[in-house]
Amino acid sequence: MTTSRDETQNRIVTAHSAYEQARDLAPQVRARWLEEVASALEAHADELVTLGRQETHLEEGRLRSELRRSVFQLRLFMAEITQGEHLEATIDHADPSWGMGPRPDIRRLSVPLGVVGVFGASNFPFAFSVMGGDSASALAAGCAVVHKIHEGHLHLAVRTGAVVQEALERAGAPIGLFSTVVGREAAELLVDHPLVKAIGFTGSTAGGRALFDRASRRPAPIPFYGELGSINPVFVTERAWSARREEILAGYATSFTMGMGQFCTKPGLLFAPFTDGDEIAGILRRELASKSAHPLLSPKLREGYDKALNTVRATPGVEVLVPGDESEAPRPTILLTTADEVRRRPEILEREMFGPATLVITYRPGTDLASLARLLQGQLTATVHADPDEDVTELVTELRERAGRLVWNAWPTGVTVTYAQHHGGPYPATTATTTSVGTAAIGRFMRPVAYDSFPPAQLPEPLRDDNPWGIRRRVDGLYESATASENAK
Predict the structure, then answer these.
(1) Distance (Å, rounded) from C-alpha 161 to C-alpha 454?
(2) Residue 93 belongs to a domain with what CATH number?
(3) pTM of the predicted model, to two decimals?
(4) Distance, CA of 426 to CA of 134 (rounded, Å)
(5) Which of 206, 263, 343, 434 has its CA 20 to 30 A from that of 350?
(6) Which residues are paired to 224 by β-bridges?
(7) Do residues 206 and 32 make contact, with C-beta atoms less than 8 angstroms apart?
(8) Percent of the chain predicted with pLDDT > 70
């Protein structure tokens, strides 16, 4: 099933042709294409979920939830692009009395990049795979997509790709607007090909960094939007610990074992002020006893998990608080160290254990938590458990420098698709400052172009004074509301 170099080349060229045919169409047309894809995924849900059950160890409920998320996301993006939010259309009319001197007529909008290569993730066979966030946002932006299938759910991905292609064809989209490829050679060509203008990636730090470097070495480097690795620290203040220790431990146990610890937002570090490890271990064992265990998603993931767990467990100053096991469906493992040890060996905080394992760091009363936060690398999330009237400004400020989403008295697992969501963070969490989840993800695959002193007839539709697409725009500094436009439909 591997895609040959020639086949990959042909799909990229065909995708570029499709992009050229579709790039200037009204967003209402593209929205209809997204609706057709969403409806097709719903219609084939039983078939696709069955394939997912056969190729992963995920339960039916989880798979159906993921598929609903993908469908919801497509429809949310439809509404976003119909209003024209992604275009960021801005009009400054000529103004001879402008404060810094006469201003010419200048108008700006964002345009799609072209062909986007998307690498599917192993741990979310719907939400971050074939028609997950990267593919959906690239299509919404006006790009064409060539999706590199993750072989951890090969048959599901191939079938999902076919469903998407058939839906787009029914909707009247150009042939090749979306296609899939399989295999390492196809992946490398996807990053190297001059017609590919951006890459979306979700996966390991090592794999993502190798592709990021490859994209940067191209004669014309391209944006590489990679989600690589995150350990997602949780800080518990002394007052919060004293007031609701057992509640916090229960939430922690639920969060780090969700999906067998194979979530990119799994809390991998817990900073907590306790001295009696035996008592805490007893509470955690009780909480973990009710958590079901499943095999990890693939043998490769299991191999990586075992290696990471053994490495952290063997680090001087680290001990086992709650032992797991080495069964096919491993029971959770909780490791323990101290704040003094991580100050001596901050690299302890850098090893992601992608699976049902986590590390607790105990600190003494009076410890400056902000100083511990300074030891961390970039993260997708950082969580603070504190009382509302506590002054944790310094800690939150340090965490803001290192994480893309800050969580207060809750847990980071679960990344809703919405307008204000940010799923990203400083390296190595991601390779960019953008988000891969939420409506803002569309903007990754666009770039701004300004039209200076153009005659009205030469302007693209979104920048014409009569606003034929009926989109939301900023005109002379003030925002106009989107309006329904029959011409654009």
Answers:
(1) 41
(2) 3.40.605.10
(3) 0.94
(4) 19
(5) 434
(6) 199
(7) no
(8) 99
Contact 121, 128 (CB under 8 A): yes
* Separation CA 19–CA 252 (nearest Å): 46
Classify 27 as helix, strand or coil. helix
Query: Rounded to an integer, what distance in angstroms lies between the CA atom of residue 376 and that of residue 366?
Result: 20
Strand arrangement of the beta sheet that strand 333-338 belongs to: 319-322, 333-338, 357-362, 269-272, 233-236, 379-385, 403-408
Do 12 and 118 fall within a single domain?
A: yes
pLDDT-based confidence at residue 485 (cuts at 50, 70, 90): low
Residue 129, Cβ neighbours under 10 Å: how many? 30
Does 305 lie in the same domain as 178? no
- Rounded distance between C-alpha atoms, residue 270 and residue 239, angstroms: 15
What are the backbone dihedrals phi and psi of residue 234, each rounded to the nearest 5 degrees, phi first? Answer: -125, 125
Owner of token pair 């570090």: 269
Q: How far apart are CA 211 and CA 206, in angstroms?
A: 9
Q: How far apart are CA 9 and CA 3, in angstroms?
A: 10
The Cα 399–Cα 405 span in angstroms is 9
Backbone angles phi, psi at 341, to 5 degrees: -65, -40
The pair of structure tokens assigned to 27 is 């967003």
Both 254 and 213 in one domain: the answer is no
239 has pLDDT over 60: yes
Per-residue pLDDT tens digits for 186-220? 999 999 999 999 999 999 899 999 999 999 999 99
What CA–CA distance (Å, rounded) separates 192 from 343?
Answer: 42
Q: How far apart are the first and last CA of the chain?
A: 40
φ/ψ of 101, rounded to 5, equals: 120, 170
**Distance, CA of 240 to CA of 197 (rounded, Å):** 48
Q: Which domain holds residue 285?
A: 233-408
CA dihedral 306, 299, 211, 404 (to 10 degrees): -60
Give the CA diameter of the chain: 76
| Residue the block writes with tokens 């891969």 | 436
* Judgement on whether residues 18 and 65 belong to the same structural domain of the protein: yes
- What's the domain count of the chain? 2
**Do residue 49 and residue 186 come from a single domain?**
yes
